[in-house]
Amino acid sequence: MAVLVVGAGIVGASVAYHAARAGAEVTLVDAGRPGAGVTADSFAWIAASRVRSGPASAVRAAATVEYRRVEAELPGLPVAWSGALSWRPGAAPEPGPGQHIVDALTLEPNLRRSPDWALWTPGEGAVDPVGVTERLVAGAREHGARVHLDTGVTAVRRDAAGRAAGVETPSGPLAATTVVLAAGVATAALGASVGVPVPVEPSPCPLFGLRAPAGLVRTVVNTEDFDLRQVAGDRLIAAADSARRTVDAVRATFRGEVDLLDTRIGVRPMPADGEPIVGPVAEVPGLYVAVMHAAVTLAPAMGRLIAREVVDGVAQPALAGCRPDRF
After folding, report:
1. FAD dependent oxidoreductase domain spans which residues (predicted)?
2. Which end of the chain is more exposed for a tag (fewer CB within 10 A), N or C?
3. Are 79 and 132 contacting, i.e. CB atoms less than 8 angstroms apart?
4. Residue-wise pLDDT tens digits, 105-126
């Protein structure tokens, strides 16, 4: 089985790693460097409990278990198991599995005041998204994968029978028996090259870098104003809508000097219905699509499940609601 994965973001890297580990002959191709696209501009919270319904809910619920599995397989995976703390105005929600209502000050002592309630999910954490992607690519290489970086893919190739047969690049064609499109928003154009519509659009996601005292924030904090976590001794990142409002909200929430350092806009691949598009394309045998939002959360689980389908030919019930033919 010769599997060619287009896209070395965190999803494509996970597919390449799991497929190579399963014994496939894997080629991974990307126009840039591992994780250098939208993966690098992710808040990177392993938010396993944030969405409890929908076709990918079971995959999401397994996210922390899957990350710990990959962490054991690939020592040095940059994951911080800090736990996640959420609160909102109004009544406290019913805690889900592995969650507790707590006094937020016991976990975040630098808060100016304690909210009326806080939902604590100790099993969650966050990752260095580029570091995880690089480690997955290195793991794929350790299992024999060939990696072509700085190599753009212009189209999917088909053979005389109409099957996917590889891809076209400026350096020439690359052959494969199965092509997995995991190229984020570029997946739509690559699908169009063989007449396959992939309903995914770019969704801007602002990410703000903040200067802050060391240890100001100890968990992943999720409020109505921002998602926030500490990524270095003197640096926070926040996912929110407005830089000015975010800085003001963080200053009002935490004790300590906080200043804006930079603003980045990630372009998330957002499927038309918000749910992952994962599975084989009936119109083009040998073509498989893997594009999704919440890619950092879902990547380890999706990589394993996709490899089972692509390499072993075993349909995975957890992906039944994510198929491309639903559109």
Report:
1. 3-308
2. C
3. yes
4. 999 999 999 999 999 999 999 9
